[in-house]
Amino acid sequence: MKNFLAISGSLKSTSTNTSILRFMIKLANPSVKIDLYSDLDALPHFSPERDSDKAPEAVEKLRKLVKNADGIIFCTPEYAFNLPGVLKNALDWCVSSGELNEKPVLVLSASPLNTGGEKALASLQMTLTALGTKQVAAYSIANVNSKLNSNKEITDEETISVLKNLLQKLSDHIENYIAEY
Ligand SMILES: Cc1cc2nc3c(=O)[nH]c(=O)nc-3n(C[C@H](O)[C@H](O)[C@H](O)COP(=O)(O)O)c2cc1C
After folding, report:
1. Which secondary-structure segment (H or E) carries 135?
2. How many angstroms does the Cα of residue 2 sit away from the middle of ligand 1?
3. Which ligand 1 atom lies nearest to the CA of residue 77?
4. What pLDDT sits at residue 181?
5. Ligand 1 pocket: which residues have CB below 6 Å?
6. For residue range 109-140, what is the model confidence (pLDDT) as tens digits?
7. CATH architecture of 2-180
8. Alpha helices in the chain (DSSP H)
């Protein structure tokens, strides 16, 4: 059984990005368990001084979840041509502690615009490179509102197929990595 952690960059209760991750939980095959991280809003603002001896509880919890996950799936909106500050804040908390180093990740963005949040995706990828992650694949979902129904489920067949393949790619990457070592 593989264990993935899904992290949405949106705090919005009706978030399309979070909906995509929820849908991926249902798409995943039975050998994969995906937990949706729900405490992004509980993280304090990052400061190196707060990152000294013992980090705040919400931070310790995030670090433990990241450490214990075989892979991470990010899905982020774009705010002002970049990733939302709340997501960058969470990543800043994981710099010194190193849990993301070598961690296999899928990097996704979604936007109602036809650009798909590609600038946020690129920015997130740059930060994840700094953190030493293994980026297995990246994908941006354009015109996202036309691909979800009123229950926020993905109805677009092509997107479903791509996301299924990405989940498989992440699983395969982890299996091959284990086989190599
Ligand atoms: C402050 C703010 C800035 C935004 N900037 C962008 C942007 O630069 N590019 C873009 O594609 N969408 C932008 N949007 C629109 C978001 O893509 C849209 O609100 C999206 O639904 C947010 O994702 P969510 O549904 O997961 O919360 C912005 C939205 C807000 C609230």
Report:
1. strand 134-141
2. 32
3. 23
4. 62
5. 10, 12, 15-17, 77-81, 111-113, 115, 117
6. 999 999 999 999 999 999 999 999 999 999 99
7. 3-Layer(aba) Sandwich (3.40)
8. 16-27, 57-68, 85-92, 118-130, 157-180
